[in-house]
Amino acid sequence: MFKHLSLSCLLLTTITASSVIAAPQVGQVSSVVPDAFKSDKGCADDVAWKPAKFPQKFNQKNCFKTNDGGSVTLTLKSDNSTLVIGENSIVLVDSLLENDGQGNFIIKPKIQKGYMGFNVKSNEGHKVDFSTGTAAASIRGTKGVIGGDEKSFFVGLKDGHLTVFDSVRVTDSIPIANGQTVLGREKFLVLNLKSSGDTAFAKTLVTLLADSTLSLEELEAAVVKADSAYQESLASSAAASQAPADVANKEDQTTALKVPKIKYSSYDSLRCVANVSVSDVQGDDVRLSSLMDGTPIAEVGVKRNMSKRLDLRSGVHEYEFVVENSAGRNSVKKTLGCYPMKPFSIKLFGKKYESITIPPEPPIANFDGTIMQTVQFQIRVPENDPSFLNKVTVRQNGKVILQERLSQIQNLDYQIPVELNRDMKNRFDIEVIHKSGYVVKTSKVYGVSK
Predict the structure, then answer these.
(1) Which residue, among 394, 393, 390, has the nearest Cα to 406 in the 3D structure?
(2) CA angle, corner 117, sides to 115 and 122, nearest 5?
(3) What is the sign, positive or negative, of the torsion defined by CA atoms of 431, 432, 433, 438?
(4) Which residue among 275, 304, 338 closes a domain?
(5) What is the pLDDT of residue 103?
(6) Whole-structure pTM value
(7) What angle do the packed helices 216-254 and 199-210 form, to 10 degrees?
(8) Residue 152's closest CA among 117, 195, 111?
């Protein structure tokens, strides 16, 4: 038992007949924390890996890989069920949207290494079936974490319940509920842990299961000890954060009104939002506002210490985020870029294919027989501003003849003189990448013959 173990998940979602056409958009990458990568052709060592991006659809045979601190969140649009690939993990989308004959469409992530958190809604027709070479389980309306590699696996539940089956001896099964974790190595081991289903604690389980020197009894003792230590660390962190709050509450009753504070944390250039946090909030008369290039664009009231997401405007601007009350104001300034993903196009001048017939080279001294043309095109972006572009590349028969990046891009109209090769097709491929990541490609062909 457990000689060849690979962990996989099936996510089944019932879709009505009218929505079958939209099936490819059932799931998408909704969040990425670097370092995280995506491959379009499986998980082999020699495949090409690119940084994972969001929002982005994922397809069959896509593979995701994360390093220290990395994660990828996959969300189902039908009911917002989520799968979160943890750090140092490799997960293959083995199959996507298979009809099981009953209107169900299936997503099958296969965990080759690491772990994955899950939060699956209890809607009728929605469930997660995960299986290994020797174990399987069905999930509906549950929240927890699963993980493993080719030699071991684990499942921990924070909410809900499920049954784990031995896929070799199908009569063997282990039911578990919220607060329980099942470990699989030589046999099933069920433990009642306060940290069951916690994705942060899952990293500890991965490390302990990977230690082949531990017997099953030693593994159980190590996991129980790690659970207690993890809960103690959570309690200490909570106490540390609560103590300053208690002191502040007492001071609020005896000291003068404080000026609130604001801290900038991050921004999203695609969603066009900035994330800030406000602290030292007292009373109801606290205002949080945004200024763009010195002009107010938004203002909201704040009644407690909180994190807030503020809208940005398209393009690159200088923002000032201000929090104030009757005691004074604090602010933070940032120059931020907002590049929402919008379709754009490339207009070619002339036909996409032009045939040029030329006479033989004349017997004229010092005449090199050069054939010149001009490739002319216009980039049509909604903003009508070249600063929204990331890269413009033009290739002639596969060879780069022009490439401009970022500040090098000064115009949207291009007229490129080119030299054509005789007795062959001359293909010019044009690729334009927007700062949002949106890519548009087109091509122009000159056929030269005598």
Answers:
(1) 390
(2) 140
(3) negative
(4) 338
(5) 55
(6) 0.51
(7) 150
(8) 111
